[in-house]
Amino acid sequence: MSIFPVLSQQKLLQRLAHPQRKIRMVLDTDTYNEIDDQFAVIYAMKSPESMTVEAFYAAPFFNDLSTGPKDGMEKSYDELKRIASIVPEMEGVPIYRGSESYLLEAGAPVESEAARNLVERAMAAPDDDPLYVVAIGAITNVASAILMEPRIIEKIVVVWLGGHALHWRDTTEFNLAQDLHASRTILDSGVPLVLIPCGGVASHLSTTLSEINDYVRETGPIGEYLYETFKNCHPNHFGYSRVIWDISTIAFLNNEEWTPSTLVHSPVLSSDFRWSVDRNRHFIRCVEHIHRDSVFKDLFRKLDSNIN
C-alpha cells in the first residue's frame, strides 16, 4: 500500500490558492470521447498569457465510441494528433499514450507512457513552481503516476473536471465513475486538488450550433474543425444546446473570478458513487459556479482577434 507524503496545512493552502501567474501544465484528456475536449485543448493553446502546455496525455474511456478503455485511449491519442495538425501552437508539444485499462485494484497503478512522463516531469519541477496537471477525463493516468511515485504530491496541483456538485444525491458522472480506484486515489491522497464538478457547475457551459457558427466557424481551419465537430455531434440542432464541459478547467486557470470556488474537506467517495463529509480530512478547492458568458466570450475572442 502506498504511503503518501503529507503537505503542511500552510503549503497545501498555498497550492490551493489560484496561481495568479502563468503556470506550466500538462493536459490529460479523453479527446475522442466527446466534443468538449477538442475545445479545451484549443482553448489552452490559445491562452499563452496564463499557461504553457508542456505535454498532452491520452486518457482511456469506454462508451459507445470505443470497444474498451485501450481503444478509447488510442482514439484519443489519434484525435490529439489530428488537432495538432491544424493548431500551429501545438507544434513541438509531445503527446503520450496513456493507460490501456483502469486501475484493477486499489493501490495498483497502470503503467503507461503518460504516467511515466508525468512522474519525470513533476519530479523535475522546482519546489516553488509546481506543475499543474489538468485532467478532463478518467483520472487513471494521474492516479497511476501518484501511486508509482507518491513524492509527486509535493510537486503538482491537479485541476480535475470530475463528479457532480457535492450536494447532489449521487456523483455517478462519467469521468469519476469510470475508475473508482483512481478517483478515490486522487481524493484520498492529499494531492493539492481543484475539483470542478460537472452537474451543477460545469453544466452551465452550454452553447448552440448557431453560436458556434456566428463566432467560431469563420476563424480559419481551427474554427471550421470545431464547427464541424459540433455539427456532427447531433442529428438535429433545432432547439438543441450542448455543454462544453471541459473548458471549465482552462477557464479556472485563466480567471478565478469566472469560476468562484471555496475550500472544502476532501469528500469521501462511496462504492455506489455518493459523496459524504469527513471534517477530519484535508482540504481541496471546489468550484461552485461558472460565469458562462465570461468564459465563452474569452474563448471566442481568442479564436478571433476581430471580436470586441
Automatic annotation (TrEMBL):
Domain named Inosine/uridine-preferring nucleoside hydrolase is located at: 26-257
> Which molecular-function annotations from GO does this UniProt entry contain?
purine nucleosidase activity
**Hydrolase in keyword set:** yes
Q: Name one GO cellular component term.
A: cytosol
The answer to whether UniProt assigns keyword Transferase to this entry is no
Pfam families per record:
IU_nuc_hydro
Protein keywords: Glycosidase, Hydrolase
Extract the InterPro entries matched here. Inosine/uridine_hydrolase_dom, IUNH, Ribo_hydro-like
Q: Per the UniProt entry, what is one GO biological process?
A: purine nucleoside catabolic process
Return the protein name. Answer: Nucleoside hydrolase
Q: Which organism is it from?
A: Paenibacillus albus
- Upper lineage: Bacteria, Bacillati, Bacillota, Bacilli, Bacillales
